């Protein structure tokens, strides 16, 4: 009977020691219970259930690695080697021209998109102003007020009724 008690005590002691984990300050343990994430174990002396719990150590220290020189592409499509090199002047000029052409291409695209939006807004404004003649007259007066701030501008007033006569001939 005493041998059986010693065997059970030894087995319990082995299980307790088997589940002990020492986690250093710069580490964390991720505990998986039956293959599913359970929790993150903080530094210290911790115990996990043997066989049922599996742990994965994570090292939080910063590690440095030597990286071989690489080629990178900048935002304006200029390829650069990531190292200290001196390029010939002709190559620098060619790369600058290529980058400038790319910037001009992008600027043209942005400008044309802006003009499309402006044309759409002008079409909407024309529809709104065409529905109400009073709104058209108010817009005309607003434009005259804007132009009159520059004294070098000459303004010739043409009544809207005269303009209607010219439109009827067409």
What does this structure look like?
The protein has about 170 residues and is an alpha+beta fold. Among the domains are: about 1-60, no CATH class; about 90-145. Helix content is about 50%, strand content about 20%. The chain is built from 4 helices and 7 strands, in the order αβββββββααα. The strands form 3 sheets. A 3-stranded antiparallel sheet has the order 3-2-5, with no helix packed on it.
| Major sheet summary line | 3 strands, antiparallel
Number of distinct helices: 4
| Apparent shape | elongated
Spatial arrangement of strands, main beta sheet: 3-2-5
Strand content: 15-25%
Query: Residue-averaged pLDDT, rounded?
Result: 84
Count of DSSP E strands?
7
Q: What tags apply to this protein structure?
A:
170 residues; alpha+beta; 3-stranded antiparallel β-sheet
Lay out the secondary structure.
Blueprint (H helix, E strand, L loop, with lengths): L1 H18 E4 L3 E7 L2 E6 L2 E4 L5 E7 L11 E3 L5 E3 L7 H43 L1 H15 L12 H10 L1
Antiparallel strand pairs: 1-4, 2-3, 2-5, 6-7
Give the gist of this structure.
The protein has 170 residues and is of the alpha+beta class. Helix content is 51%, strand content 20%. The mean pLDDT is 84.
